[in-house]
Amino acid sequence: MNIRTEKRNRLYVWGIVPSILLLVFATKVLLMFGAQSGGESAYSAQRYDDARSEFAGNRTLNAIERWRAPFNEGDARFGSEDYDRAIMDFEAALKHAPADQRCVIRVNIALAHEEIGDAAKEDQNTLAAIEAWRAGREVLAEGECDTEDSRSTDERLEQKVRSEDADEKKQKPQKKKQKPDPERERKKEKLKERNAEGQAERKDSQELEDYPYQPDQPEYSW
Predict the structure, then answer these.
(1) In CATH, what number is assigned to the domain containing residue 106?
(2) DSSP readout, 117-147?
(3) Residue 133: phi, psi to the nearest 5?
(4) Is 126 left (phi over 0), alpha (psi -120 to 50) or beta?
(5) What is the spatial distance between Cα 115 and Cα 78, in angstroms, rounded to a whole number?
(6) Which residue range is the domain that position 147 belongs to?
(7) Per residue in 61-104, pLDDT tens?
(8) Does residue 138 lie in a domain region?
(9) What angle do CA 54, 56, 62 make, to 5 degrees?
(10) Residue 203 maps to a domain
(11) How far apart are alpha carbons 189 and 103 in whole angstroms?
(12) Within a domain: 36
């Protein structure tokens, strides 16, 4: 192999490497868009489990927008009423989300807490309902969200908490004042009188014991 042939081979190798990298990147992009498109189609058809599976594929494929796959998974779980896991997915998305998307994600977390609270209220578990609604409000407060969606969600949750608190107070049994019993009151007064008489007798007895009596003191004669 002469020098010219060797140089030509090196040029081939150097040319092939970028082509391979470009092909890998293009394949990855196609797979990523395919998963996103498949997930969106399944979501529109309300096949939420299929949608979540499609979106999950982008957790490894979409390294640039790492928040988008778990966010979409959370939406799919929300649609299938798996609210606890939806919150977990939204929280995973929140860790990598850009600033302009964080309140959107927090609103979704609050909505999931609201659904959990509503279900607890239907089961007549008022304490669990209030706890879930308050958790939703706390998520919004932590992010200092001040969007139209966040304000309306927070106001709705606040109203639900206040309503249930008011109902709880109404349902608590009020202690009724007992009417005075004349016979009982008469017995109390009688007992007080006896106690007073007993105290007076004990006082007189103590005074007699304290009197300085002397046995050999001469008696008076008249």
Answers:
(1) 1.20.58
(2) HHHHHHTT-HHHHHHHHHHHHHHHHHTT--S
(3) -65, -40
(4) alpha
(5) 9
(6) 98-168
(7) 777 888 999 999 999 999 999 999 999 999 999 999 999 999 99
(8) yes
(9) 105
(10) no
(11) 71
(12) no
